């Protein structure tokens, strides 16, 4: 039968006897346990495959009606269980998943539920094969096995359920969403998993396996849908209840730790398996309280009464002394270390690379800083005083060898190991909470995990306690990860912190509490940096410091926090571990990025070489001291190393300096990064291996990449300090661009872009950088000439690395326009030709960058007047607007907006000549393309409407009268109207209002006689009165005040509508539900007042009745009040600050007065010409009198508007 299935069956073992003799079954027999991991190492790698194939063939040949079915099944299951399929030990194993699924399905059909020992062995086999071979089951196999184990739980005896649940946990691993039909039986009201996972379950092993099953059901693998919220909520409540329940009496603490581990794993799966919303009330606080308690599981010296719930509060909730017996309640922990000194076992000193570790990474010896050792307790102290003492490191406590016998010592070590795993699991859960819950919700719980200041009494138990004093480096690393997750993205929360003002005695502001918390974090993490010996944990300490530096508001704190940290980190740049060196550079990058330029960091950068890291400055870990210059010995002993004078100058690059630059202090950090990128390392670190390049090899790629990142940050934030090294940094970038590593090339291009951007920022007028402080133009031109003569051209043409091409395009766009004009013509032509060519790239990233660069070049003064370049750029942009990629279309719309800005500039500077040279058909295509783009996504639309406004402003009378422009013109205006009235983002609507006002500036537009003009004014009137965003209102009011002639506003009805809309908006200028909008109310009133005076200045006699009625009503008083304020602001009087951000033109007060006088005189003359006279309020022409009256008492002019039976009075 085996031959028929294609399998060869070796019937005998190596010694000629049956390899797996049958075993008699009995109720008392112990279930079969697989052999050890090393039992089959002597066999060839193919033995496992052969055995599996042989047994699979035999198993498939069995039939349910076989006489010896029971014995043969028992033998085959034993054979399959005895083999080790772990690929770690036998990497050549190649057993197909479908063969495993076939074997398990067939075996489940052969093993009856009445044969409970065979059921146990089958369940063990399911766990054994699926777990070791990492098999992903198909749906049919999953259904068959789920049916089998579910039936076994219902039919078989309770003593088998432990193994059945173990198989179930393996089957449902990551498959919870596919087992919906079985979850009601397992997790229902009377489900077997709920029964066995109850804290009252007497069988602790059943409880542990049931919790493991539930955790695996909740587990969500990447790309899978989450488990149904109904079942996930049931599991969550079970896990939380288990964590909150006390340890049952007469339960071994070791086994209970295993139960807690399973519950913690399940809770982590629940929180990480998709978006999780905590229920109302105290659910989140209960979870945080349970996790905080378990964070200190088994920690020596902890004997406190933990709160059952944590509440959000600005002040920490300190734990009180425990009133419960430690043996009765699992919340309470007790120290388990004795006071006697440990006798020496005669072992030699451990080397720097062979620090003592337990199985879980516990340290037996960890050197602490002096500040930590001050809190240590004496030899004669008793454990009863432990609650009044700071947590002393458990691995620093000494025990006698005679205190425990060997079995007892082993049990204690195992208990410490499991306690450490519980603490680690609790921190993993806490990390999932920090990542899954909204930041604003968690800010209220910060005080429970981060102390605000060191205390004189018992220290609060926080994350910093674990970071400083836990014995396991893995646990300390987890605590650092949690703290990093809390600090990440907390910039807006910590921005409140401030301690620069003098302290208050009556109360402590919350801002001061946050500031002290930041200082306490600095203090504790600095101590952890001194004490840490594990390179992996040390890396986490430095990363956590980087998160703190990136989010803390140092400009609001007293100086002095960053200087010690800067100097403390200097020796670690020579650490032997690559990851530590990379994290140090990350921290330096955060230091030069945070609130740059920061005065304290600027002073640190200006310090001469070596003053920031003195010659005696070494890391506390002697394994890291001067590893580059230490004697080449295989195992350096743990003895103090005398630092040499060369240690702090190891990375000083030799850069030639001009005579004028000799006295300039170059930042030590800049020289360090340049050296790390360009100079070969003098020795290899222990973690890099031996023989990977010799002494001429450069630093590892991660170190060089991070050094380039720091250089970019340094150039961006402190360009004035790095500009003296402009050419040298350019040479570093050129060298990076010439290397083979694409990542190095990419960072080299990014560095060039930062240099170019820094130069542009210096030459911008609004930055007010003195001419003497700028990089000389000749040096800028020389810099770019060297760049273009280097490998940048190759990067631009490297089609194999589109990301590099993209970065190279960004570099081209960062050139100073004045410097571009002084480059040789062939260089200019090369840049333009390359960019135009790259817009046809098949990669959307390259095309996006090229189109953006053309949008930058079109604004260059030396190019914008070139009609041919403008036309070529326009055609390229129009083609990009039709691209499938929304990113390309967004940048094309932005470039089109810049191009139309250039058209307006040329119209104002060059004049009609440029307008006549530009093709009418090209303008028509641009108008139509911008109209189509205005219906695209918001990020395309915002610049498309900007381009529409510019084009409508640019068109001449001869073009507007042509029939071919009539329909596109109407479509363009209606597109703007639709965008103004839409529910798009406020940025889009702001741009649309701006574009509308820009279009109104074109005197050739037929505003007064076109049907679309009425829609335009109606849309602006609606926005100015109803839009929630005040900046949009401001821009719409400014647009309504743009037309310079009364005829542009249409008939009297439309003019009156505009007036009433502005008056209503002025009356409601302070009505808003959003406090953030209130800061723009002054600017809104200023713009509205200016618009009303503009309408009054161009009004005609037929408009007077409507204006008079408005001024006579309730809104008349509001108008008078705000117009008085407006004239005071224009005069520069009281309340001038904050009122002038109107976005419109402003005139002198006397000009305003003269304008009003002329308006009223004109209205009076027009009224006299008509000859129409009526009495009372129904007059068509109101008598206008102008009286200029000085108010010496106020020192200012006042304006009075009113309507009387004799006319409209304006008194200034």
TrEMBL record:
SUPFAM superfamilies, per database record: ARM repeat
Pfam (any one): HEAT_EZ
Listed Low complexity bias regions: 607-626
Biased composition (Basic and acidic residues): 351-366
Domain of life: Eukaryota
Region (Disordered): 341-366, 607-661, 680-699
Coiled-coil spans in chain: none
The DUF4042 domain, residue ranges: 421-601
Sequence ranges of Basic residues compositional bias: 341-350
Protein name listed in UniProt: HEAT repeat-containing protein 6
Species of origin: Monopterus albus (Swamp eel)
């Amino acid at each position: 039968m085996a031959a028929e299935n294609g399998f060869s069956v070796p019937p005998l073992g190596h010694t000629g006897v049956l390899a797996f003799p049958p075993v008699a079954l009995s109720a008392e027999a112990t279930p079969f346990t697989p052999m050890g991991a090393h039992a089959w190492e002597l066999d060839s790698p193919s033995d496992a495959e052969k055995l599996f194939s042989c047994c699979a063939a035999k198993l498939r040949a069995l039939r349910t009606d076989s006489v010896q079915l029971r014995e043969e099944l028992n033998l085959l299951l034993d054979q399959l269980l005895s083999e080790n399929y772990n690929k770690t030990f036998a990497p050549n194993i190649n057993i197909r998943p479908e063969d495993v699924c076939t074997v398990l399905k067939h075996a489940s059909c052969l093993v009856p539920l009445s044969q409970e020992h065979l059921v146990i062995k089958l369940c063990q086999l399911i766990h054994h094969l699926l777990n070791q071979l990492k098999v992903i089951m198909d749906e049919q196999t999953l259904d068959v096995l789920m049916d089998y184990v579910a039936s076994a739980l219902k039919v078989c005896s309770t003593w088998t359920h432990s193994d059945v649940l173990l198989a179930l946990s393996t089957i449902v691993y990551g498959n919870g969403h596919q087992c919906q039909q079985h979850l009601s039986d397992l997790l229902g009201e009377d489900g077997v998993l709920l029964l066995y996972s109850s804290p009252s379950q007497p069988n602790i092993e059943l409880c542990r396996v049931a919790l493991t099953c539930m955790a695996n059901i909740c587990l969500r693998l990447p790309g899978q849908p989450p488990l149904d919220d109904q079942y996930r909520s049931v599991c969550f409540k079970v896990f939380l209840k288990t964590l909150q329940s006390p340890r049952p009496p007469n339960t071994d603490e070791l086994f209970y730790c295993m139960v807690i581990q399973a519950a913690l794993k399940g809770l982590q799966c629940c929180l990480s398996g998709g978006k999780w919303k905590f229920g109302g009330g105290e659910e989140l606080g209960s979870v945080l309280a349970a996790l905080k308690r378990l964070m200190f599981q088994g920690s020596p010296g902890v004997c406190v009464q933990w709160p059952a719930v944590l509440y959000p509060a600005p002040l920490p909730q300190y734990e009180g002394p425990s009133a419960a017996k430690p043996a009765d309640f699992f919340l309470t922990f007790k120290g388990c270390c004795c006071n006697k000194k440990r006798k020496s076992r005669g072992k030699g000193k451990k080397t720097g690379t062979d620090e003592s570790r337990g199985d879980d990474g516990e340290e037996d010896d960890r050197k602490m800083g002096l500040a930590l050792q001050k809190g240590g307790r004496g030899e004669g102290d008793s454990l009863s005083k432990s609650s009044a003492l700071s947590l002393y490191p458990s691995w620093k406590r000494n025990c006698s060898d005679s205190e425990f016998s060997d079995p007892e010592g082993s049990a204690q070590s195992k208990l410490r190991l499991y306690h450490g795993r519980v603490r680690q699991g609790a921190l993993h859960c806490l990390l999932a909470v920090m990542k899954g819950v909204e930041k604003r919700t968690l800010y209220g719980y910060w005080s429970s995990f981060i102390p605000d200041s060191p205390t004189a009494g018992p220290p609060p138990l926080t994350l910093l306690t674990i970071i400083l004093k836990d014995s396991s480096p893995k646990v300390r690393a987890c605590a650092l990860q949690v703290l990093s997750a809390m600090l990440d993205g907390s910039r807006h929360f910590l921005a409140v912190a401030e301690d620069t003002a003098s302290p208050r005695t009556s109360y402590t502001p919350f801002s001061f509490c946050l500031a002290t918390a930041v200082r306490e974090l600095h203090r504790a993490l600095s101590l952890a940096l001194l004490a840490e010996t594990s390179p992996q944990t040390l890396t986490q300490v430095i990363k956590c410091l980087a998160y703190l530096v990136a989010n803390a508001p140092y400009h609001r704190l007293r100086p002095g926090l960053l200087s010690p940290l800067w100097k403390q980190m200097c020796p670690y740049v020579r650490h032997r571990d690559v990851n530590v060196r990379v994290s140090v550079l990350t921290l330096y990058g955060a230091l030069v990025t945070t609130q740059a330029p920061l005065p304290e960091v600027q002073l640190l950068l200006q310090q001469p070489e070596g003053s920031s890291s003195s010659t005696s400055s070494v890391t506390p870990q002697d394994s890291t001291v001067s590893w580059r210059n230490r004697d080449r010995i295989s195992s350096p002993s743990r003895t103090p190393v005398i630092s040499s004078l060369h240690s702090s100058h190891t990375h000083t690059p030799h850069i030639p300096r001009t005579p004028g630059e000799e006295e300039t202090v170059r930042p030590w950090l800049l020289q360090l990064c340049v050296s790390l990128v360009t100079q070969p390392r003098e020795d290899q670190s222990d973690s890099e291996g031996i023989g990977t390049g010799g002494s001429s090899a450069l630093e590892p790629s991660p170190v060089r990449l991070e050094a380039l990142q720091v250089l970019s940050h340094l150039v961006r934030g402190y360009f004035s300090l790095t500009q003296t090294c402009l050419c040298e940094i350019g040479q570093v970038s050129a060298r990076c661009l010439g290397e083979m590593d694409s990542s190095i090339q990419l960072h080299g291009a990014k560095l060039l872009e930062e240099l170019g951007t820094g130069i542009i920022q210096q030459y911008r007028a609004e930055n007010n950088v003195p001419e003497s402080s700028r990089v000389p133009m000749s040096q800028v031109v020389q810099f770019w000439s060297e760049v273009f003569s280097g490998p940048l051209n190759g990067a631009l043409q490297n089609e194999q690395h589109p990301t590099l091409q993209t970065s190279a395009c960004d570099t081209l766009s960062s050139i100073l326009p004045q410097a571009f004009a002084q480059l040789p013509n062939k260089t200019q032509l090369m840049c333009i030709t390359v960019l135009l060519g790259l817009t046809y790239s098949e990669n959307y990233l390259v095309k996006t960058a090229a189109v953006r660069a053309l949008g930058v070049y079109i604004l260059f003064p030396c190019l914008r007047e070139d009609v041919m370049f403008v036309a070529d750029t326009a055609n390229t942009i129009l083609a990009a607007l039709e691209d499938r990629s929304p990113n390309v279309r967004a940048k094309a719309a932005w470039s089109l907006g810049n191009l139309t800005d250039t058209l307006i500039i040329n119209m104002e500077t060059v004049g009609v000549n440029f307008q006549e040279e530009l093709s009418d058909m090209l303008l028509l295509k641009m108008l139509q393309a911008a109209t189509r783009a205005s219906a695209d996504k918001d990020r395309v639309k915002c610049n498309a409407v900007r381009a529409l406004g510019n084009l409508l402003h640019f068109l001449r009378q001869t073009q507007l009268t042509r029939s071919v422009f009539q329909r596109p013109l109407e479509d363009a205006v209606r597109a703007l109207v639709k965008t103004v009235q839409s529910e798009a983002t406020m940025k889009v609507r702001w741009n649309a209002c701006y574009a509308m006002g820009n279009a109104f500036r074109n005197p050739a537009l037929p505003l007064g006689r076109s049907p679309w003009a009425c829609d335009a004014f109606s849309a602006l009137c609606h926005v100015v009165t109803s839009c929630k965003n005040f900046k949009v209102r401001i821009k719409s009011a400014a647009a309504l005040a743009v037309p310079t002639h009364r005829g542009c506003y249409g008939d009297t009805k439309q003019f009156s509508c505009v007036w009433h809309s502005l008056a209503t908006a002025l009356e409601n200028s302070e009505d808003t539900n959003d406090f953030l909008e209130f800061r723009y109310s002054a600017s809104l009133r200023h713009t509205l007042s200016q618009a009303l005076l503009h309408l009054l200045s161009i009004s005609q006699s037929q408009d007077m009745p409507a204006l008079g009625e408005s001024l006579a009503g309730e809104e008349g008083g509001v108008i008078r009040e705000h117009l008085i304020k407006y004239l005071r602001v224009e005069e520069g009087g009281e309340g001038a600050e904050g009122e002038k951000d109107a976005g419109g033109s402003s005139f002198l007060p006397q000009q305003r007065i003269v304008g009003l006088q002329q308006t009223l005189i004109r209205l009076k003359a027009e009224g006299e010409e008509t000859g129409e006279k009526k009495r009372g309020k129904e007059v068509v022409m109101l008598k206008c009198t102008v009286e200029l009256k000085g108010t010496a008492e106020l020192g200012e002019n006042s304006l009075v508007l009113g309507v009387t039976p004799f006319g409209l009075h304006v008194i200034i």
